[in-house]
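Consider this today:
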Amino acid sequence: MAQIEMNALSVITCGSISVRIFLPEMNLLALDDKEHQKKYPVLWLLHDEGGAALDWLATPAERCAAKYGIFIIAPDQHHCLCTDMKYGPRYEAFLNTELPGICRNNLPLSEDPALNWVGGVGTGGYGAVKMALKHPETFSKAVCLNGILDLEAICKKAAVGQETGIRHNKASLEAVFGDLDSFAGSQNDLYALAKTPARAKFWLGWEEDAPVAEENRRLAGLLGDTAQTRTLAAGSDLESCQASLPAAVEWLMKG
């Protein structure tokens, strides 16, 4: 098992980026492929709000990459909520275009949407689902681990000064989304996006006692046949995706 850290300059975000990369096991790499003809599947993995790419070291990400012969690439995304911010960098554009381009320039990664998947935990799950709903030409599947998905409810809490639970307040959410009263039905509202038939496929998993269970069920209902769900035993994820991530990657590999 192996993992590396890559730092690069991003034009879109106007700064440096840090990316954690988990590699396939050596016996699953075509080491004699000097022309790099073989291209590998990729899971682009998004951390929770307030976290960092480094958080994935505490999860089975490295083990999953080694076992299945895929690259798992986890970028830092700061407090952007995987969004082209109203007052800040365009992180959605970065994740959809520039980050894959930078990584493919340095690693033998597939450009085929069928072999490019996006996943995340918490608000990273929100970002993953949004990317697959809006950009199926880039990501054919999304996996959402204990996803925090109802950002409209969070924006409503923030607008009246209530605790949001995601390390954001009214001012910071306005920096991301703009006018919070206009969030519902926007291109950042998953439930609005999901009303249009999805071209991607989705896996949503959550612990049975998780506060986010109902919002995940609601989204799965809107996604219909394109979504598969998994209810995990309470405490099985141990706050580090111990159960959900291996189950999600196994689903991804079934094709």
User: Anything to note?
Assistant: The two ends are 24 Å apart (CA to CA). The domain at 2-148+190-253 is CATH 3.40.50.1820 (Rossmann fold). The mean pLDDT is 96.
